[in-house]
Write a structure and sequence with these properties.
By secondary structure, the protein is of the alpha/beta class. It has 16 helices and 28 strands. The longest helix has 15 residues. One of its GO terms (molecular function) is ATP-dependent polydeoxyribonucleotide 5'-hydroxyl-kinase activity.
Length: about 575
């Protein structure tokens, strides 16, 4: 008995969009409505007609609104029909409101192979009257159109009048007949993997070989650029090779024994702004354009995989290179996020960040910008972050003062989030009773806990940020009531060091509440330095000296972790 789906849905990574149920063999119309939660007035209320077939695992799609939809990265035309399969991408408007088609249970691979074979037979019908060429809309200027062959879509009708699309390059007639020049949207020869619930996607294209020499590249701004001239692509087809010689350069490296690898940050996938299926099609088309087997690592979040952290390289080195040791001295990395200032070349903007250069520094790899690598330019000027985690001193925690006292006392910590207050209190004041607002929830509860410990004759450390006089005065007044001296310990950690600590904590302790950099910046902006006039017996500056339980934590801490 053939497998049959029990249900079919349009699902979106965008939490603002509602899931849409597609019934079996019943036509429905979807668009701007409470059922989708789409309020975009550019989207028609009657935008697209859908017809799901649970037996064939197909959804027939027809744009009926005035504005184009998107199907797997391509722009649709009104009244032209498509066949969609499980996991294909439909955008209600081209580049916006992305959904994935999901059959439950999903089709098994054997069923997909048979279905694709039937689709292939359908496309090979020799019916001259059924051929139709649909131009993919492009924003290229006339010069670019002359230099680069225009993409086309070859499609044939089956007996139901449904068009099945295959993208081809417009080449000579002999090349056009060669199936190697086709990009089949259902091609599953490339292997895609998902790690840690989609935090890392890995594409291994056909023909990739594990090798000791690695030629690694960023993607956007390094191998490709937008056709529109915008900083960020306006849609999935808004790309072109950054230089015409990219394929030749990469083919030579491949022939010289290098494995071609791409490391790219794509947080928009993890946030739901970009559909994974559409990005996969874009990546496939880029690989086809370059014409070299490669392995692509895609970081979709803000975790250890996101550059400049080295998680993607670790996956390559430990898992995806078949135990072949990588020769770092012979390997290199190319990226456009190189920390170059404004006017590093005439009329050039400054780089948006330095993550590519920092990744190379973290790994000990030779680094080149695209201009240096592809065009042979001399090294441009650049700026590294002022905070270098490798330069942290192992000097004294504080100078000229004792950290603890044999007499009962109160120590009031002062420092922004990530400055190391809790680390210091845990490691150097562990016999003091710790009062912490993050644990107790309010300053009133902190006061109550503080008084309880004082009544029990214990010394107390107030492990809060205490940024201003008003927040500190609450505890000083209680100390006066009990006639207990108060010392103020001020963390001397810089803002960038605190942000580094915060990022390290985020990478190594997922249970810790994430602190946005804006919180740290706001603290610094509103900070009031403590003075003895507030009632302190002593003000002590504390240097943050990290301690590590594992050597791998030390190695990570001493790497660049911030993106700018």
């Amino acid at each position: 008995m053939n497998q049959q789906a029990k249900s079919c849905y349009l699902k979106s990574n965008d939490k603002a969009l509602k899931t849409v149920y597609l019934p079996h063999k019943k036509s429905i119309i979807v668009g701007r409505s409470p059922e989708t939660n789409i309020t975009d007035t550019q989207c028609s209320r009657h935008q697209v007609q859908l017809y799901a077939d649970y037996e064939e695992y197909k959804v027939f799609i027809q744009q009926i609104g005035l504005r184009s939809c998107g199907f797997n990265g391509f722009k649709t035309s009104k009244d032209v029909k498509f066949i969609a399969n499980h996991d294909d991408c439909l955008e209600m408007l081209y580049g916006k409101h992305a959904y994935q088609i999901e059959f439950n249970p999903p089709p098994v691979k054997r069923f997909l192979s048979k279905k694709r074979s039937r689709d292939s037979e359908m496309l090979n019908e020799n019916d001259e009257n059924s051929d139709k060429i649909v131009k993919i809309e492009s924003d290229k200027d006339e010069k670019t159109r002359e230099e680069e062959p225009q993409a086309e879509v070859k499609c044939k009708k089956n007996d139901q009048g449904i068009l099945k699309y295959i993208k081809r390059s417009k080449t000579t007639s002999d090349e056009f007949k060669n199936e190697d020049n086709m990009i089949d949207l259902d091609n599953d020869q490339d292997m895609w993997e998902s790690k840690e619930s989609g935090a890392l996607l890995i594409c291994t294209t056909q023909g990739v070989e594990s090798r000791s020499k690695i030629a690694a590249y960023d993607m956007d701004g390094t191998l490709i650029k937008t056709k529109s001239g915008l900083v960020f692509p306006k849609d999935y087809d808004d790309w072109q090779l950054i230089y015409p010689d990219v394929p030749k350069k990469l083919r030579k490296l491949h022939n010289d024994g290098y494995k071609i690898v791409v490391f790219t940050n794509q947080k928009s996938i993890g946030s739901g702004k970009v559909n994974p299926k559409s990005f996969k099609n874009k990546a496939r088309n880029i690989v086809q354009k370059i014409g070299v087997p490669m392995q692509i690592f895609i970081a979709t979040g803000s975790d250890i995989y996101r550059k400049p952290a080295i998680g993607m390289w670790q996956q390559l080195e430990k898992v995806k290179n078949d135990s072949i040791s990588i020769d770092k001295d012979s390997s290199f990395y190319v990226g456009d996020a190189a920390g170059r200032p404004k006017d590093w070349a005439p009329r050039r903007k400054k780089d948006h960040s330095s993550v590519d250069r920092l990744l190379a520094l973290n790994l000990g790899l030779k680094f080149y910008t695209p201009e240096e690598h592809f065009l042979g330019h001399k090294q441009a000027q650049f700026k590294l972050p002022t905070f270098n985690p490798k330069n942290l001193s192992n000097g004294e925690i504080c100078s000229g003062s004792n950290i603890t006292s044999s007499n009962q006392e109160i120590i009031l910590m002062v420092g922004c989030p990530g400055s190391g207050k809790s680390h210091f209190a845990r490691n150097y004041l562990n016999h003091y009773e710790c009062v912490n607002r993050d644990t107790l929830g309010s300053w009133q509860k902190c006061i109550t806990a503080m008084e309880r410990h004082l009544n029990e004759k214990g010394s107390v450390v107030i492990d809060n940020t205490n940024p201003d006089c008003a927040s500190r005065q609450r505890y000083i007044e209680v100390a006066k009531k009990y006639n207990i001296p108060v010392r103020c310990f001020v963390m001397s950690t810089s803002t960038n060091h605190a942000k580094h600590n915060n990022k390290f904590r985020e990478l190594t302790d997922p249970s810790h509440v994430k602190v946005n950099d804006l919180v740290i910046d706001s603290y610094v902006k509103n900070y009031q330095a403590p003075s003895l006039d507030e009632g302190f017996t002593e003000i002590v500056n504390i240097n943050f000296i990290p301690k590590f339980q594992k050597e791998e934590d030390r190695e990570l801490y001493e790497m660049y972790l911030l993106e700018k």
